[in-house]
Amino acid sequence: MTQDLVVYLVFITYAISVLMGFGTILTWVERKQAAVMSDRIGANRAYLRIPFTQIKLVWWGLFHGMADGLKLLLKEDFKPKTYDWYAYMVAPWVVFTPVLLVFAVVPFGGELRPGELIPALAGWFGDRSYSMQIAKLDAGLLIVFAFGGMTIIGAMLAGWSSANKYSLLGALRAGSQMISYELIMALTLLGLILIYGTVNLDEIVRWQSGIVLGVLPAWGIVLQPFAATLFLAAAIAENKRIPFDLPEAESELIAGYFTEYSGMKMGLFMFAEFIEIAIIAALFTTLFLGGYNLPYMNDAGFLFPGGVEVPLSHGTVVVIQLLTFLAKVFVLCSFQILIRWTLPRFRWDQVLRFAWKFMFPLALANLVVTVVFVWALR
Fold first, then answer.
1. What's the DSSP call for residue 46?
2. Cα 120 from chain centroid?
């Protein structure tokens, strides 16, 4: 139907705008947050001059992201003398595209009723309602891991096709590290799947609108606090961020698996990393922080312990849910960047030992305890 097409085009446009916006603003957040932590001013050299005046608009260094983007677009695209041209060209897109596709199954709001939200469109939309999610799939969580696994192929292709020993070494590191920590991410989420009884992300969020122990919101971090910690650590390692940035390791491998890339191809690798920060934050919000809802909130309003209800209009609920989701994602993005400027880099042997000898046994133990607990209750 035409109405459905219009709504989903709006959803897709919103999702792409949010991801691109986060990818851009996080480059500035990383610089300024690092400056604050280092007690310095930070990026403040790029500016826009008002025409015919000497007034320079610095705006806390916000124009540095624009300057970086222009530089990447206009920079000459160098290529190695000996390389596999097809794999070399495809690799950046194999890394970048799945990162965007993951957001298709992430619910960024609850139920949307366009006819009620905009009365002027009531006659056209009727009583149609939509979940604020691009692809409402029953296997949403499985889709996340399927697309996430594709980025491993992109990193391996980039390193191998460049015909550079540093790139190949970085690709080998990236492949082994990403496979190791993706397994740990899956194990940590098995406990949540056992509790929620579904892999549908929208149903998982709605499940978290309830209450446990009479007063606590039924968020994943309340039910599985240990799994939440393991998941966030494994996700940061999956994104190859400090202290797990051994695949890049600019001090020893120049730039790792994308050493031979320049211009916008290199920009795709870097931009994918910042967008993945937002994706990790969105997934953590959806799985462990109640998603788009505030504590005790659902699509009708608030239901507090003791049965006290505070009904809200549909438009108010939609706005609160959208803003709540964005706020949670931004806070988690800032937390990931905080970790990046707090912890030192591991050695390569420590990265894999940490995965297989520390996090893997803990994830298994958490899963066993969860299985026994769920079995005892049911």
1. -
2. 36
